[in-house]
Amino acid sequence: MKGSQARVLIVDDERSLVESLRVLLTREGFEVQTALSGAEAIEKLDTNPDVVLADIRMPKVSGIDVLAATRRKLPDVSVVLMTAQASLQSAIQAVNEGAFHYVQKPFENDELVTVLRRAAERRRLALENRALKHEIRRRDRTAAFRPIGNCRNFGEAVRVAETVAETDSTVLIQGESGTGKEVLARYIHSLSSRSDGPFLSINCGALPETLLESELFGHVRGSFTGAVRDKEGLFVAANGGTFFLDEVAEMTPALQVKLLRVIQERQVIPVGATEAVEVDVRIIAATNRDLEEEMRRATFRNDLYYRLNVISVHLPPLRERKDDVPLLAEHILRKLAEPHGGPPKRLSPAALRSLLDYNWPGNVRELENALERAVVMTPGEMVEPAALPKAVVERPPMPLVGEQPAPNPTLEAIERAYIAWVLRAEGGNKTRAAEILGIDPSTLYRKIARYRLDQV
Fold it and tell me: Most buried of 67, 208, 297, 356, CB within 10 angstroms?
């Protein structure tokens, strides 16, 4: 740490010495603060100095007391003690107990400046080391939470999440059940400046209204039957961190109003209380419903929707990212093997083909359940189709045309029906469908638009 960057707190009850040291160290490029007593110095520790230069012998609060307070409040701040011959033994003992160094009065100015610069450099290295360890932990945590997938549509959702993670903006994650909305929410939290704070979550559809209100906002003793003590709500418990509200569309209109107040005012009022409690929390909400449709039906408040939908992220269903199935399966099998310490089981080519051919209405959650069953049912290392659930392996054939096809369909009608059939068979995977049809993906996209097959 260069002198111009180092902050020194000078502590001595002799005013003339403090003033001369202030002039010397300011000229040497230090930022200087002064204190004329140990008690005043302890108060000024809140200014976060890099080095404390304290006389060891002061009335009431000694330099040893200042050392103890500094080690308690700012353990990586270096303390240099000034001592006369009479207190030399105490200074040596203080160094053994954590002081950086001592200088004996009268001292040479050059000697003092050298010692203070070394002390400041020690603190700089300590802060850098702490920051590096924090960054390593953050990166490890981030890597552990990063959602698995390489498909373009899924990658776009992850990139949006990464872009907004460092902000405090409210995020709305939309997608079918089982697509990994909470996984993405945890990933956003791990990338944010709140990553050292709590990540709490609740499923808004899993509890009745009164219990959900108490869980979210807390309650005071006696506010309802069974409220035998005050209870802290999850909004308060999540202070300094992130609160994930899953299936937010399941909230009743009354609770929607209270959630809107929290977002607008950053305050909660516990059930039965009259005073608001300040909260500092980032909100991430998720739903598997179409909130715009819910607004049209008047079951979801427009003002709440616009408060939640600051940043919108859509997670595609697994049937639209079939190329990620092998990667997800490998990851899940590895996780399932970790508790046992052995190597993960592997999928046979036939088993993998079954996974790729299935449309996964339950998305990633259904894939996890299917593979967990397969691992339990497989005594060896290789998972075969027989170990997978019947729904995955045994599917009824999909008819190319309906039960009552047109008696003389046009070529265009046949082409439309065949393209729709291939798209359904491949779970909406347009790249694979184009390969099967023997056409370029761009041609397929034009035909999809022409025949209005976007919903297939």
Answer: 67
